[in-house]
Design brief:
- The chain is of the alpha/beta class.
- It has three domains: about 190 residues, Rossmann fold, CATH 3.40.50.720; about 80 residues, no CATH class; about 55 residues, no CATH class.
- Strands 7-6-12-13-14-11-15 form a seven-stranded mixed beta sheet. Strands 9-2-1-10-16 form a five-stranded parallel beta sheet.
- Helix 1 packs parallel to helix 12.
- It is globular, with a radius of gyration of 22 Å.
- Bound molecules: flavin-adenine dinucleotide and uridine-5'-diphosphate.
- Flavin-adenine dinucleotide binds next to helix 1, strand 2, helix 11 and helix 12.
């Protein structure tokens, strides 16, 4: 097998970036992907003139100019700003937690009034160090918002009581004293016009890269290890080692996509259902990512249901708690001792709750390291 310099396992953002950069340096690359399409979780597909995000809403956001310029080589981005709305038993609240939310929740009008209300609510946790997600949320924003906008959503999403979840999960949510519904604090944000799949297509479009979909690395692992001088592996690191140190934990999802014969189903791209009873966490309406595109009498929506993960399911989210992070470190050590011709990358290979910009950054870092 002298034909290829690299085998890349997984045609997602990490694998494709590595393949593109390797080919740019004259290396020959074989890419295998177990799904029947490329692009991993950022895969989008056109339905009725609308790009459907097949694996959940994907909004590109970053403060890293290098990463932003890099991704803009492959697509033009629109001005989409993520501003999800929460539906709690029919009451509608703007997210992230900002003056609009506080005004809707408590009727306050000024930042001083909002702060006074938040401080009053935080009293419950006064002098106590938050030990879990519930306590962290209450000390951050108070009980009213915790009960209506956080508890139900979080317990559905993670399948655990908020009192048993680590506090760090909630630190991702910004709190603002301005009337600004932008979910992210980053400098750059948008959605690629024409979808994400084109980015991966362009990255893999080279005479030096061969791509095969519908191929699982584990069907011929030993042969691949023998035949290829170097492998870039973006699947699950614990599976690579046959779970020999134990299983890392993941959270899975189920997506239910439906075409509707209405022009505008919910009036926003993302609506979160934050009560405990609704079985899904959010509904996305894809046409609202695109401003005026698509059939005016039709729309496509996707409900996102959280699910337990068992072997064979799609591992959408690593669960980065202490136990799993410690176990991951042992796998990473094993990798450096026993698999030094394998680069482990991406959300699953590095077992990190990475956003797209972080995956790109990690892939470009791996490239620099490999070709220094
Ligand atoms: P993946 O996209 O998972 O690619 C890995 C590929 O490897 C997959 O295609 C998989 O099929 C393949 N593979 C695995 N094992 C094997 C094997 N044994 N053999 C062959 N192929 C294999 N990020 C943002 O920045 N903004 C967002 O708004 C955002 N929203 C998200 C919403 C959801 C619901 C989810 C799940 C993620 C979201 N992300 C978001 C994160 C984003 O999807 C990831 O950062 C990115 O797609 C990870 O790229 P990757 O290449 O590491 O992994
Ligand atoms: N979250 C919440 N209510 C919401 C949205 C998010 O409590 O309406 C919490 C929830 O615990 C979630 C975390 O914030 O897991 C991070 O949310 P984000 O939208 O950043 O996650 P992702 O899009 O990656 O699933």
């Amino acid at each position: 097998m002298q034909k290829y310099d690299y085998l890349v396992v997984g045609a997602g953002l990490f694998g494709a970036t590595f393949a593109y950069e390797a080919a740019k340096r004259g290396k020959r690359v074989k890419v295998i992907e177990k799904r029947n399409h490329i692009a991993g979780n950022i895969y989008t597909k056109e339905v009725d003139g609308i790009q459907v995000h097949q694996y959940g809403a994907h909004i590109f956001h970053t403060s890293n100019k290098e990463v932003w310029d890099y991704v803009n080589q492959f697509a033009e981005f629109n001005r989409y700003t993520n501003s999800p709305v929460a539906n709690y038993k029919g009451e509608m609240y703007n997210l992230p937690f900002n003056m609009n939310t506080f005004s809707q929740m408590w009727g306050v009008r000024t930042p001083a009034e909002a702060m006074a209300k938040i401080n009053e609510q935080r009293q419950e946790m006064a002098g106590k160090e938050p030990q879990n997600l519930e306590e962290q949320a209450i000390s951050l924003i108070g009980r009213d918002i915790y009960e209506k906008l956080i508890k139900g959503y979080t317990e559905k999403q993670w399948g655990q009581k908020a009192t048993e979840l680590p506090a760090f999960i909630i630190r991702r949510l910004p709190v603002r004293l301005v009337y600004d519904n932008n979910y992210f604090n980053d400098t750059y944000q948008g959605i690629p016009i024409g979808g994400y799949t084109q980015i991966i297509e362009k990255m893999l479009d080279s005479d030096l890269i061969d791509v095969e979909t519908g191929v699982d690395f584990f069907d011929k692992k030993d042969e691949y290890l023998k035949d290829y001088p170097k492998i870039v592996f973006t699947g699950m690191i614990d599976q690579f080692f046959d779970y020999r140190l134990g299983e890392l934990q993941y959270r899975s999802l189920r997506f239910e996509t439906e075409e509707k014969n209405v022009g505008n189903y919910q009036g926003n791209a993302v609506i979160n259902y934050t009560d405990a009873e609704t079985p899904y966490t959010r509904i996305i309406e894809h046409k609202h990512f695109e401003f005026g595109k698509g059939d005016k009498d039709k729309t496509v929506i996707t409900r996102e249901y959280p699910a337990d993960w068992h072997r064979g399911d799609e591992p959408y989210y690593p669960i980065n708690n202490q136990r799993n992070n410690d176990l991951y470190k042992q796998y990473a050590k094993l990798a450096s001792e026993q698999a030094n011709n394998v680069i482990f990358g991406g959300r699953l290979g590095q077992y990190r709750y990475y956003n797209m910009d972080q995956v790109l950054h990690a892939a470009l870092t791996a490239v620099k390291e490999e070709f220094k």
